[in-house]
Amino acid sequence: MSAAPMPTTMEDQIAQWRQFLRRRRAIESGDIEELEDHLRNQVTLLSDAGLAGDEAFLVAVKRMGSLDELSREFAREHSERLWKQLVIGDGAAAQASLRSDAFVALGLAVAAALSMKAPALFGHEFNEQATFYPRNASLLILPHLVGYFAWKRGLSITRALLLLLPFAVGAVFANIYPFGVLRSYTGTLTALHLPIALWLVVGISYASGQWFRGHARMDFVRFSGELFIYYVLLALGGGVFIMFTVLMFNAIGINAESLVAKWLLPCGIAGALLVGSWLVEAKQSVIENMAPVLTRVFTPFFTILLLTFLATMAWTGKPIDVQRNVLIAFDLLLVLVVGLVLYAASARDLNAPPNLFDRLQLLLIVSALLVDALALAAIAARISDFGFTPNRVAALGENVILLVNLAWSAVVYARFLSGHGSFAALERWQTAYLPVYSAWAAFVVIAFPPLFSYV
Amino acid sequence: MDLGKDLVAASATPLVLAILAEGESYGYAILKRVAELSGGHLRWTDGMLYPVLHRLERQRLVAAKWGTAENGRRRRYYRITKDGRAQLAAQRRQWQVVDDTLRGIWMKVQPA
Asked: Does B27 contact A37 at a Cβ distance shorter than 8 Å?
């Protein structure tokens, strides 16, 4: 008889049983140890009474009671465990690793904050007139994040240094060009696109050599989404903190605004990214991902919005009024829809059959494509009036990239819904497409300033 | 004869406290003692003892600490506290009332 997945020895059986217990959130490692001690005593007693090993184990497990009931009883006694799980580590070893993780993350957060302030030594102040910071902020902060993942995933020094190479390249292109005026268009484009290009490097360090294999890319997408949410929350908290700093010092007649602007803001912006990343890493298996939840909530709303918009346009016959920034607005719309598709995919069971939500997603994509096509048609008709400024070309390029993504996503989705393909194809397409965004962003950073003569 | 669920649940606290009043013990030994005392009639699902012990610990009726078993594994030992003894005495009086009351009526009612 061959029963491959059946554990053979008693130790294996107990280990497997422990594994089942560990999945219950209300039952902690100490409880498991206690229950295991009980189980072993019971098994010994039953074996002494003449039962064979397997039988003794089965009887002992049965007497322990069903896992569901057991975990419900534990949950009733320890309801707080269902809530705060982040600080409670699983066992002493895990606790120690959590602590060293926290130390490294906090140390790097401080380092990132300091490197954010380092340029001040050379006369670059963090203020609204500065052109230095917008272009270089990502270069000052993100290497620390790469360092964090290099440490966490145990990357070799050579690999870690290799990952810093793109930052050196980025530093060159962010600073060698003679961006003319204070608010030059191409300078602003560099500031906006450099972080997108470098985020890919963070992804590669996150995946630590698995970038081309397995589900590392999708994990990085999940990480990015959670980090975004944590960052927003930290920023809100930081805003409250800054408000109190200013208010309290105001009460004793001291103006703290320059302290806030020069120190709190830049250090907070840098440190929060590291702290946020650490929080996402620490709680990933513990708390449900928020990004897919938000996706689920907002997908129906945006689908209704787009459909209503299309219906209103058709009904009233009003064309899209092509203003200067209309292209950027529609870019953002497509970014949002791609985000909704991506994060819905990130939380989906790849093998589950199509459901209503999948149909809704396809409807969302198709209506977004229609809206964007209408906008592009309107813009194309008048592009000669506006001329090709760097902003417009960048926006147009992004529109095309997002449009291609969504168009093919629609095809893959349609195939999946009609039963001719699997959902995995959509995940593959979305994750394979990720480097395209960064490649385009890198192109904008490197080629646009000279192409448009640094305006 | 198996006891009803509610009765088992109600008797758990005084029983555990009384057993711990005999001396420090641990989960498995407590259950064995329960089986012994009841002649095997009072059966708990083994795992359910532990949430009860944890509740008593939270209420400070028992105190727990990790020790080492004779086989070298970590084991959690429980002992009754002062509050626990007071609670046990109170429970004992309550059960006495229930017992007396039932005794009074048992005499007059014939089992069906």
From this structure: yes
Whether the full predicted model's pTM is greater than 0.80, yes or no, is no
pLDDT for B11-69, tens place per residue?
899 999 999 999 999 999 999 999 899 888 887 888 889 999 999 998 899 999 999 88
| Domains: count for chain A | 3
Q: What CATH class is the domain B5-106?
A: mainly alpha
Q: What are phi and psi of B79, to 5 degrees?
A: -135, 155
A265 and A296, same domain (yes or no): no
Q: Any CB–CB contact under 8 A between A183 and chain B?
A: no
Of the candidates B46, B50, B71, the beta carbon closest to that of A42 is on B46
Same domain assignment for residues A195 and A314: no
B48 and A31: CB-CB below 8 Å?
no
Does the model's ipTM exceed the 0.90 cut? no
Q: Report the chain A residue with the minimal C-alpha distance to residue B78.
A: A34
B contact residues 83-102, partner A, Cβ 8 Å cutoff:
none
d(CA A346, CA A295): 10
Yes or no, beta carbons of B50 and A31 under 8 Å apart: yes
Domain housing A60: 10-82
- Calculate how close chain B gets to A57, using CA atoms only, in Å: 14
